[in-house]
Amino acid sequence: MKPIWVADDDQSIRFVLERALTREQFSVRCFSNPRDVLAALETDVPQVLVSDIRMPGGSGLDLLSKVKQRLPGLPVIVMTAYSDLDSAVSAFQGGAFEYLPKPFDLPKAVELIRRAVEESLREQVGTELGAAAPEMLGQAPAMQDVFRAIGRLSQSNVTVMITGESGTGKELVARALHRHSPRGELGTKGPFIAINTAAIPKDLLESELFGHERGAFTGAQTMRRGRFEQADGGTLFLDEIGDMPFDLQTRLLRVLSDGHFYRVGGHQPQKANVRVIAATHQNLEQRVKEGAFREDLYHRLNVIRLRLPALRERREDIPGLARAFLARSAHDLGVEAKRLSDAAMERLMHFQFPGNVRQLENLCHWLTVMAPAQLIDVKDLPPELLADEPEVAVVQDHAAAPAAPAVVAPVVVHGAADAWLADLAREARRLLDAGVPEVWGQLTRQFEGQLIHVALENTRGRRIEAAQKLGIGRNTITRKIQELGLDE
Questions:
Q1: Does one domain contain both 304 and 324?
Q2: Per-residue pLDDT tens for 316-373?
C-alpha cells in the first residue's frame, strides 16, 4: 500500500499524526507546505492526502484543486477549524473526502483516515476493473493451486479436464488456459470456441460439433462448418462433457485420436488442429461405471485434471470477489460503486452459495441496482441470504456417538465450565417468551461488549494487544468499541 501524506505547517500536528498512523501500521510521509507536496507528486502518489487548509506558501484549498486535477480518485482530508464553515463548504465543493476540525480527537482522526484508505483501495479496484479486469481472483490456497497449474500448462497443448460444481468458473479457467498457451494472445492468436454439450438437443449436437454438408438433412440449405473447424489453430472448450450422448462420444474419441472427422452427410475427411479442454460438474468415474460414459474417452480427456473449489471452500475470497463484482457492476452501469457493511459482509461469509461464484456475481449486480444506499447493510440483502443462517455447532461424546449423524443435535451443556451457556439459554428463553424484539442483536451486543471489556481489562486498555488475544483485527476492535459505546 502507498504511504499516507500529511501536509501541515504545524510540526506538532505532523508529529502526532505520523506517530499515531505508524502505530497502526501505516506508512507516512510529512510535508510542511503545498509546494513540496506538488513537487513530490511528480515522482510519487499517496494512498490518502491529509492537508491543513492554511499553510505558508499556498492554500490547502488550492492544493486540493491541483491534486484533484491530477488524481481525481485520491481521497483528500482537509483539516480546518471548528468555526471555519466557509472553508469546510469549499473543501467539499472541491471534492474533499472529509474535513477534520481542529482540535481533533486522535483516535477519530485515525479512524477517518482509515476509512479514506479503504475508499482509495476500492477506487483502485474499480479503476483496474474498468480498464482491464483480471481473469480470476483468489487468495485461497485451493485457488492458488489452480493459478500455479495454469502457469505450468501455459506452454503446453495437452488436453485438460476441468471439474467442479456449477458456477465455480470452469469456462474462465479454460479461457485462461487458452490465453496463456502458444495458441492464445501471446502466440498464434488462434480462436477460443466454447460449446455447452448439455444445452444443445441431441439431434443438433453432431452438426454443431462437426458441421454438415448441403442437403445432409431437411433444412440444410448450405454447407456449415462445425465447432471443430471453427476452432482450427485454437482451443475448443466442451462444457458439461458428461452429458454428451453415448454415440457422439465415439466420434469425439476418433477426432481426439487422429484429428480427422466427417461433416454430417459428408464423405471427405476433414482435419483440424484443435486443443480440447473439457469440463463437467458430474462424477465421470461414476458415469463410466454406470455405462453412460466411454471409459476410453474418459482416459483420453483426463490427461490433466484441474478441480475448481466451491465458493464455500474458499470463503476468505468472498470479500475480494464481492468488492470486485460490485465495482464491475457499477462500471458497467455507469454509477458509483456500492460497498458492503461489515455486518453484510459477515452474512455473505456465512452463506453457503450453492451457485458459487456465479451466484455471488449475480448478487452483487442485484445489489448495485436494488440497494437503496451506497453502504449496503444486512437489511438490504435479498431474502435468500437473510433466510440462510449459520449451521448450529454439534457437541457430542465421540466415544458413544455415531460417526456421521443425519441430523443436527442440540448443544448439550456439561459441567461448571459451561454454566454460562446455561445462563445464556435461560436469558434467551426469558426474552423470547416475553416477546422482546431483536433478541439476537441484543444478546450479541451484550456478549461482544463483555468480551471486549474483559480483554481490555486484561491488557490494561491496550487495544491492539486485546485484539490479538481475542483473535480479531485491530480495525474490528476499534469499530466494535465505537459501536458498543465502550469508549464513553
A1: no
A2: 999 989 998 998 888 888 888 899 998 999 999 989 999 999 999 999 999 999 988 8
| Nearest-angstrom CA–CA distance, 270 and 421 | 73
The answer to whether residues 334 and 298 belong to one domain is no
**Nearest C-alpha neighbor of 272 from the set 237, 302, 220, 235:** 235
Of 262, 288, 308, the last residue of a domain is 308
Q: Is residue 16 part of a domain?
A: yes
Whether 155 and 298 share a structural domain: yes
| Per-residue pLDDT, 397 | 35
Residues 443 and 427: beta-carbon distance below 8 Å: yes
Evaluate whether 68 touches 74 at the Cβ level (below 8 Å).
yes
Q: For residues 301 and 258, is the Cβ–Cβ distance under 8 A?
A: no
Residue 130 has pLDDT above 80, yes or no: no
Q: What is the pTM of this model?
A: 0.53
Q: Which amino acid is located at 43 in the chain?
A: T
Question: Which three-class secondary structure state does DSSP give residue 79?
Answer: strand
- Give the count of domains, the chain: 4
**Rounded average pLDDT over 386-398:** 45
CA atoms of 342 and 355, how far apart (whole Å): 23
Residues 111 and 217 both lie in one domain: no
Could you check whether the bond before residue 383 is cis, i.e. omega within 30 degrees of 0?
Answer: no
pLDDT exceeds cutoff 90 at 417 = no
pLDDT at 364: 94
Give the type of residue at 105: D
Q: Which of 409, 398, 326 is closest to 360 using CA atoms?
A: 326
Could you tell me the maximum CA-CA distance found in the chain, to the nearest angstrom? 90
- Residue 80: what are its φ and ψ, rounded to 5°? -150, 175
Three-state secondary structure call for residue 277: strand
| Structural domain span for residue 424 | 416-483
DSSP assignment of 332-387 equals: HHTSPPPEE-HHHHHHHHH---TTHHHHHHHHHHHHHHH-SSSEE-GGGS-HHHHH
**Residue 365 belongs to domain with CATH number:** 1.10.8.60
Identify residue 132 by its one-letter amino acid code: A
Q: What is the pLDDT of residues 168-198, one digit of tens each?
A: 999 999 998 898 888 876 667 789 999 988 8
**Claim to verify: residue 258 and residue 368 sit in the same structural domain:** no
Within a domain: 400: no
The CATH number of residue 14's host domain is: 3.40.50.2300
Q: Which of 371, 387, 403 is the last residue of a domain?
A: 387
Partner residues linked to 100 by β-bridges: 79
pLDDT reading at 236 higher than 90: yes
